[in-house]
Design brief:
The chain is of the alpha+beta class. 56% of the residues lie in helices and 14% in strands. It is built from 19 helices and 27 strands. The strands form seven sheets. It has a six-stranded antiparallel β-sheet. Strands 8-24-25-3-26-27 form a six-stranded mixed β-sheet. The protein has a five-stranded mixed β-sheet with strand order 13-15-16-17-18, with helices on one face. A hairpin with a 6-residue loop joins strand 19 and strand 20. The two termini are 30 Å apart.
Length: 843
């Protein structure tokens, strides 16, 4: 609680000079004649608290400045300071640094052009003054500063206006403000919600459309991935079949090797038996033949055996040559087919070149790839050296080239690079490349390693220029400014850039089914083997011719001797038959051996073919579970079905997958925002209902408390009776307020039906009830007893005296009865239009 310590005025209304009026506890009376300016002290306190000029009996704020009176000049400004007690530290938080002061000073100064508030003699805002007064429970517009006519105003106010006083006292105006703010928020939320619902519906439609596009894109993606799996599954099936073929060939070859070894051992054994039989026959014929004849027979048999043996070797080697040649041809077919597929793939990739070739226009010769053939072993080097020029189209003249380009444009067939032979400009070979040819490991210019018609030389020179072919890039380690390719496809540009790495065609690969490490098929080595075998065959044929001539000579010599010796009989003939049988058996066994050797060669060829096919297909790239099960025919049918489905789906927006996910996230966020607005709308509606309920409870609680105080104070003022505050419509806090009074020995009336004096007392009881409810620190009353008779004035004075025991009471009055009950009094007089204040001795 606080109180007013003093008020200081200067230039305010009728107070020209600075006037200091101290106030103390208890009841203080300010008296004076009408027009002396005593009510101006009441206005001065209101002035400091920020009331409007109309509330201080002035039309304009500048009218509050001293106007000069009868003899003095007008003042330039009006200033009032109000000193409030702070012994209990009520206002410490407003003091700078939180220091304590025994009192605080509120001030207000106005000129004819400005209005300034001060706190502790420093300029401050009106808002700070309001905060300080609120801290002390001082309401400038409340019921603790009762101005002249306020009593009459309460009487004359209608029921609705009276109820508004209860609204103000109960503080439900804050509820109204909250409700008003909530209604504005509700209106805003509803507006946003309606807009967001429309947007959400539109976005939902867009999301559905995107969903359809996304589903089509996902289906297209699934089918495309399945196509890849199907193609790889077909390759996997082919690889498995080839691997099975390789496994069977290896098994058969392995079995034949063992059987060949057995037959070779048997042939060796038979050779030994023949030899033994010959020696046995020779011993039995010792008596039939001379030593020379026996030697001749042996010689004949030996020569025959040699001829037979060498003829067998020739047959075997010829079969080997045939088998090797078949292997070379078969592998060449496989590689040619693979090259054709690669070429077809390339041709498919250059539809424009293919279209020009199919057109068969005169002067169009073909592509670089079709007009040039690299020598064996230089295929990779040529492809690397030519690079992107392999598909260049060679024509005779610039006119033909322009005609081709026009044709491509008119048919919208794409683009092609065309080389007109007559207009191509070919530079001379560089000195650097010529010097590089002298280095070890450098083979030759690339153009010299390619077979082509001299007619197309200018085109090949244009493409290959002075590119050289080397064994590897190491040989050019210290050479710059030279374009070079290696046999396995590495490339060095003239600028020094290097291109190379691992190439599938030049690497050894595993046979997945057989698990055997196989080398790539070496055609050159096989051809060398053929050449070597052919030389051996020629040499053997020459030897056979020599031995055949010798045999014929020996046989003629033996025939001559046998004609002379015809007595070979008996056991010698039998042994001879046995020898013949052994030789026949040896021949049959050797024939079986030759057949097995030919079969071995066939399976070796099949094994080489299978290995070459596996190398062409490459290694397994996926886990077995990746591949799709089914026969080759079923997989191809599925590929065709998928292609039809893919065509039906086109055109497909593949970005719809990502767009849908992003848009769905945005849609969900926006939907959450709409749900949030729905929730917010519901909460605001609930809040409005809660505000109304709390407002009603607060109002009724206040009304009930005021009714109790009002009835108590009424009984004091009227020495009995009863009074009440009631709503015109019970329970409806928006209806008017009725003030009902039942003075002693009278009937119950509303305030409008009472006499003037009774109305004034009832109104005072109402105001005092408000004061009791608000519990303000002081009470300031301005001539509220003017309409009271002596008895009622006495009752009022006694009540004020009782109030002054608890709070500070200041009364502006000219009623002697009121002054008589005061503990101190100030008299206000006026002379020449200037008010003066005097302290009065009440004793």
């Amino acid at each position: 609680m606080t109180k007013i310590n003093k008020v200081v005025l200067a230039g305010f209304k009728s107070f020209r000079k600075q006037t200091v009026i101290p106030f103390f506890d208890g009841l203080t009376a300010i008296v004076g004649e009408n027009g002396s300016g005593k009510s101006n002290l009441f206005d001065a306190i209101n002035f400091v608290m920020g009331r409007r000029s109309s509330q201080m009996r002035s039309d304009r704020l500048e009218h509050l400045i001293f106007n000069g009176g009868e003899r003095y000049p007008p003042a330039d400004s009006a200033q009032v300071t109000l000193h409030l007690d702070n012994t209990k530290g009520v206002f410490n938080r407003f003091i700078e640094n939180g220091d304590h002061a025994p009192e605080i000073i509120l001030g207000r100064r106005i000129t004819r052009r400005s209005s300034t508030y001060t706190f502790m003699e420093k300029t401050c805002s009106r808002g700070l003054i309001d905060e300080i007064l609120e801290e002390a429970k001082i309401d400038p517009d409340g019921q603790q500063l009762i101005a002249q006519g306020r009593i009459t105003e309460v009487i004359k106010k209608g029921p609705i206006k009276r109820r508004e006083i209860i609204d103000e006292v109960s503080g439900i105006a804050a509820y109204d403000e909250k409700k008003k703010k909530a209604i504005v928020e509700l209106k805003d939320v509803k507006s946003k919600l309606n807009t967001h619902r429309v947007i959400l519906a539109e976005r939902r439609r867009r999301l559905r459309a995107l969903s359809q596009e996304r589903d089509a894109a996902l289906e297209h993606q699934r089918l495309t991935e399945e196509q890849v799996r199907l193609e790889r599954s077909i390759t996997h099936l082919k690889r498995e079949k080839i691997a099975e073929k390789l496994r069977r060939a290896q098994q058969e070859r392995s079995g034949m090797v063992k059987r060949i070894e057995g037959l070779e051992a048997e042939v060796t054994k038979l050779d030994l038996e023949v030899e033994n039989k010959e020696w046995e026959l020779e011993g039995m014929q010792d008596d039939l033949k001379s030593d020379d004849q026996i030697a001749l027979v042996k010689e004949v048999e030996r020569i025959r055996s040699e001829i037979l043996h060498k003829q067998g070797e020739i047959n075997f080697k010829r079969q080997q040559v045939k088998n090797l040649q078949e292997m070379i041809d078969e592998v060449a077919k496989i590689k040619a087919a693979e090259a054709a597929r690669a070429k077809d793939s390339t041709s498919d990739g250059n539809r424009a070149v293919q279209a020009l070739l199919e057109r068969k226009q005169g002067g169009v010769y073909g592509t670089i790839a079709s007009l040039a053939t690299p020598r064996p072993g230089f295929e990779v080097a040529f492809e690397t050296a030519a690079g992107g020029h392999l598909n260049d189209l060679v024509v005779d003249s610039r006119e033909t080239a322009i005609a081709c380009i026009k044709y491509l444009k008119s048919k919208r067939l794409g683009r092609a690079r065309i080389l007109p032979l007559r207009r191509l400009v070919v530079s001379r070979k560089s000195l650097a490349s010529a010097d590089a040819l002298k280095l070890p490991g450098v083979i030759d210019y690339a153009i010299n390693l390619v077979e082509f018609d001299s007619k197309y030389r200018r085109a090949l020179e244009y493409v290959l220029f002075d590119t050289i072919v080397t064994e590897d890039l190491e040989v050019l380690r210290d050479v710059d400014g030279v374009r070079a390719v290696t046999l396995d496809g590495d490339l060095q540009s003239k600028g020094g850039a290097l291109t190379g790495g691992w190439r599938p065609d030049s690497q050894k690969k595993k046979s997945g089914a057989a698990g055997v490490q196989g080398a790539s098929f070496d055609t050159a080595k096989k051809r060398q083997q053929i050449s070597h075998l052919e030389k051996e065959i020629t040499h053997l044929e020459e030897k056979i011719e020599e031995r055949q001539a010798l045999l014929e000579e020996k046989e003629r010599e033996l025939d001559t001797r046998e004609e002379e010796e015809s007595r070979v009989k008996g056991a010698a003939s039998t042994r001879s038959d046995e020898l013949h049988a052994l030789r026949e058996k040896r021949r049959e066994t050797y024939q079986q051996l030759e057949n097995l050797r030919r079969g071995l060669t066939r399976y070796e060829r099949e094994e080489a073919e299978a290995q070459a096919e596996l190398e062409t297909l490459g290694d397994e790239e996926n886990d077995p579970s990746y591949y799709i099960e089914g026969s080759l025919r079923e997989l191809k049918q599925r590929i065709e079905q998928n292609e039809r489905q893919l065509r039906r789906l086109e055109p497909v927006n593949m970005r719809a997958i990502e767009e849908y996910e992003a848009y769905e996230r945005e849609f969900n966020l926006f939907r959450e925002r709409v749900d949030s607005l729905e929730t917010e709308k519901h909460e605001i509606e609930l809040l409005i209902g809660q505000i109304e309920e709390r407002k009603r409870e607060r109002f009724l609680e206040t009304l009930e408390a005021l009714t109790v105080q009002f009835d108590r104070i009424f009984k004091v003022l009227f020495q009995g009776g009863s009074a009440s505050l009631e709503l015109e419509e019970p329970g409806n806090i928006s209806s008017g307020l009725l003030i009902k009074a039942n003075p002693p020995e009278k009937e119950l009336h509303v305030i409008d039906s009472l006499s003037g004096g009774e109305q004034a007392l009832v109104a005072m009881a109402f105001i005092f009830a408000l004061q009791e409810y608000q519990k303000a620190p002081f009470f300031i009353l301005d001539e509220i007893d003017a309409a009271l008779d002596l008895m009622n004035a006495t009752r009022l004075s006694e009540m004020l005296y009782e109030y002054a025991k608890r709070i500070q009471v200041i009364v502006v009055s000219h009623n002697e009865e009121t002054v008589r009950h005061a503990e101190r009094a100030y008299g206000v007089t006026m002379k020449n239009g200037v008010s003066q204040v005097l302290a009065l001795n009440l004793n």
